[in-house]
Amino acid sequence: MASNITISKGVFDFLKELKRNNNRDWFEAHKTDFKKHQSEVKSFLEAVKTNLNHHDDIEKMKLFRIYRDVRFSKDKTPYKSHFAGSFSRLGAHLRGGYYIHLKPSESLLATGFWDPNKEDLFRIRKELEMDADEFRKVINQKELKETWGELRGDELKTAPKGFDKEHPDIDLIRKKQFVFVRNLTDKEVLSPSFLDEVDKSFKSIRPYFNLMSEILTTNLNGESILE
């Protein structure tokens, strides 16, 4: 497994400067620095992907662009003050994804189901309506909980249409997202062991992904819906 690749302090120093000088003139003058740090982050993400593929199947890695889409935003600063990357699991059988966000004092790892489509969200809710015991058992597993804490995500204020607001598992059924987030200190990100810690964190979420993949590839009778 790749383990000797790190995030340098220079990456965070550059992002701090970018935040203070978020304009095109400064960025163009420091384009070479940006390219160097972007390349470093990309190498780190490639190493994360290599490690993930030892215990998962990753279809795609994405390094997000530094340029902001300001067309519909009140904030017209042209650049993001962070680097970020995501990893999508392979094919229709494996659901869920991984995310890394690198920003001074605001870095995090995230995983789960950020924006499930309408069909997937309904299927998850129907499963929880029928029986949420296994779901609760998985999200409360010791290693997962010690690493990631509580399940997070936006939720409705009341029951979704067609669901009983008095249902004993309505706290889960109301959710629109099913994600876990681990906040990171700068010291953790810049540590020589950060790559291994990322892999360990992502590996601990597998029981959750296994359950959700099973739910999202079957009907309520447990029969596969994949061709």
Automatic annotation (TrEMBL):
UniProt protein name: TIGR02453 family protein
InterPro entries, A to Z: CHP02453, UCP028451
One Pfam family, short name: DUF2461
PANTHER family noted in UniProt: CHROMOSOME 12, WHOLE GENOME SHOTGUN SEQUENCE (PTHR36452), DUF2461 DOMAIN-CONTAINING PROTEIN (PTHR36452:SF1)
